[in-house]
Amino acid sequence: MKTKNILLGIFSLMTFATYAQTEKNEKVETKTAVTELKVEMENLDELKNFDWNMVKEMFQENDAEQEITLAFAYVNKSEIDKSKVRVDNFEMKLTGKTANLDKLTARLKKSFDKLDEINGRNIKN
Question: Which contiguous run of DSSP H or E holds residue 3?
Answer without folding.
Answer: helix 2-21
